[in-house]
Amino acid sequence: MPTARNTVMSQRLPFVSVLLPVFNEAESIGSVLTDLLNQDYAGEMEVVVADGDSTDGTAEVLARWAEDSSLVVISNPHRRQGPGLNKAALEAEGDVLIRADGHSSYAADYVSASVEALREDGGAVGGRMNPVGSTPVERAVAAAMNSPLTMGPARFHHAVSREEVDTVYLGAFSRRDFEDVGGFRSFPSGSSEDADFYYRWRASGRHVFVDPRIVTHYTPRGSWLSLWRQYWRYGQGKGEMWWANGRLPSWRPLAPLGLVVGLLAGGSLGVFAGTWWPLGGLAASWTALLLSVGMRSPASIWLTAAAALIMHLAYGLGMVGGVLTGWFSTRSL
Question: What's the pTM?
Fold first, then answer.
């Protein structure tokens, strides 16, 4: 009998299970399921939804959609993505597991392109994160996310051809490899599951590839408060990863951490030593960078600069929090 990896590389199309963890996604879950249940994939596939006991009507929408025989709905009382993905994987029947998210839309060939890339590359594969907003704030956040001055040079944001990377947005992999790596871990922040999974994936000797042919469009947060909370959790998760793994997955999180540490140190020098020029110089440089992000944006200059400011500051402060508390909060991992 062929293994899952051999199945992926064989001539027949593998059975695919799309794993979709959701919580309170009533507004978008219908369009997400429309995309996923109308894929052009010629092989057998299913969509396994792990609902985190939603309270906004998501469960009722899922119940109506569950009449489709290729949709499986399970409960995820932990609510967080990591446990939801693991529960969905246990329920899934596919040889290939493909991640999906409740904040994205999917090209009709999302599944078939993922399987094709797996056949070509093996390992794990995923596409670029393509943020697209519809409101002024969403468009500004999307523009900030597309800027290397905001997000750094991570290739899953900017790649134009297939290449090996440290992490991808969502992703596809064989069931056997997923199980060998140990599935997803859940951090107290409720974030960084993907970064941690692909860190452990690469530590096991496996490879990760980004392939722009795998197309999704991500809907950014539409309010400043939700954006702040999101990036605070992202930063906190990286601090927790540092304690859990003994190192960061890449050097990129050090930039917002350095900014926050520099601002705090500069402010302390000003208050206690009366020396304000370090804080002024750092603030002026940061302001120039934010304005550069805004001026290159197709959206509002000022809204884009504000989005970048929030993303930098929330991420950096969240990482400080994760570093300070991660030793205690990650001991059970």
Answer: 0.89
